[in-house]
Structure formats: structure tokens, C-alpha cells
């Protein structure tokens, strides 16, 4: 029943969209911070 509500109702689909967006945003922040920490580390030690 819960899965039916998640995939068929308006608020369920919006909740799913928000969950996917937040997970995507977390992955992007992890990539962004990791890339900038590596770049900053290279500048400090040279």
C-alpha cells in the first residue's frame, strides 16, 4: 500500500522527486568538495 501511494499519488511523486534531488545534491557536493580539497592540497604543498 505504501508503495502504491508513493508512485501514484501527487504527494508521493513529489516526495520521490525531493528524495532523488537531495541524493543527487549530496553526490554533487561530495564531488565538488573532494575536487576542491585535492586542488587546494596541491597548492599548499608546492
UniProtKB/TrEMBL annotation:
InterPro entries: DUF3149 (IPR021494). This is DUF3149 domain-containing protein. The chain crosses the membrane at residues 12-33. It comes from Candidatus Accumulibacter affinis. It comes from the Bacteria. Pfam families: DUF3149 (PF11346). Keywords: Membrane, Transmembrane, Transmembrane helix. The keyword Transmembrane applies.
Amino acid at each position: 500500500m505504501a508503495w502504491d501511494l508513493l508512485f501514484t499519488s501527487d504527494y508521493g511523486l513529489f516526495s520521490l522527486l525531493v528524495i532523488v534531488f537531495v541524493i543527487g545534491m549530496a553526490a554533487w557536493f561530495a564531488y565538488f568538495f573532494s575536487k576542491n580539497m585535492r586542488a587546494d592540497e596541491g597548492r599548499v604543498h608546492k
